[in-house]
Amino acid sequence: MIARLRHRIDGWFLSRRPPSDRIELTQRNVYILPTRAGWMLGATLLVLLIASINYQLNLGYLLTFLLAGSVAVGMHVCHATLRGLAMHLLPPDPQFAGAAAVLRVVLDNSRRSTRHGIGMSVRGSGQWAWSDVPAQGSATVDIAFKAEHRGLHPVPPFTAETRFPLGTFRVWTVWRPAAKVLVYPAPEPHPPALPPGEPRVDSPQLAGARAQHAGDYDGIRPYRRGDPLKMIVWKKVARAEAAGSSDLYSRDAQQAQRQELWLDAQHCGLADHEARVSRLCAWVIMADKLGLDYGLRVAGRTIAPSLGEAHRRQCLEALARC
């Protein structure tokens, strides 16, 4: 019951925060309350005051009001440390499901003194990233965010706080960014080999090609003297060198003219949709590392064969949204 009530209050509180990727902290959106140490210090000052009144101790009065003045100054400094700070969220990069995404927040300080001990975290996560912001400068804070499921997720609300200088007060704010982070599906840990290539539709050997090329599609052959440098598959050469081999590999242009590599959800051999998406994701990464031209068919969407980073991102985005 208490948890449900707290959840409703938290939802009502966040709904009053308009989403924005940039926020400037003012007195309207910065809050302050004593910490546990602050409440203990307040109780100690009350005891000192009562004892000083009861026994008429002038030094007791001096100590009590000296400490109370220090607490008042600390409260003002603590609130001013966060007030006036500007925060800006950089566009988040896509991440794979189950992996920690890094959300980068830039803190801008326009005043002539350093702001110390500013912490940021995803609201409710309990994991804090702390930073000092130099005078009339900026600092970047990296905040971890882990999404368990693929898709387009809104960036969760942030909490920024400080307890500088005495730790007796906690000054905090809640920020609700408007950006969204794209989460790719988690690739299958140990996927099978790439599916066999399919004959091109315009190939004159359409009838016999499907039977001849039942093996795994790779589109790669050993290097032959006279092959142009642009045909060399440098990624495969680098892996061969790491394994202690000096062999070179080139693209098989003739095979590429006869076959196309299609990553099709119907060829995964799995009944569960999420398992098929996970296998397709692993195949996309595998084909990209091999430097192959590949196409994708999933959930009624077809992406024509190509290669490169932009094609890889397009395929992974399609898998994230299907």
Descriptive overview:
By secondary structure, the protein is an alpha+beta fold. It folds into two domains: 18-183, no CATH class; 198-321, no CATH class. 35% of the residues lie in helices and 28% in strands. It is built from eight helices and 18 strands. It has helices spanning 2-15, 36-55, 58-82, 206-212, 234-242, 253-258, 273-290, 309-321, and strands spanning 22-24, 31-34, 86-89, 95-96, 100-108, 115-122, 129-133, 138-146, 151-154, 158-162, 169-175, 180-184, 198-199, 220-222, 249-251, 259-264, 294-298, 301-306. Strands 2-11-10-6-7 form a five-stranded antiparallel sheet. Strands 1-3-5-8 form a four-stranded antiparallel sheet, with no helix packed on it. The chain has a four-stranded mixed sheet with strand order 13-16-17-18. β17 and β18 (301-306) form a beta hairpin. α2 packs antiparallel against α3 (58-82) and α7 (273-290) packs antiparallel against α8 (309-321). The chain is elongated. The chain starts with a helix and ends with a helix. 24% of the residues are buried.
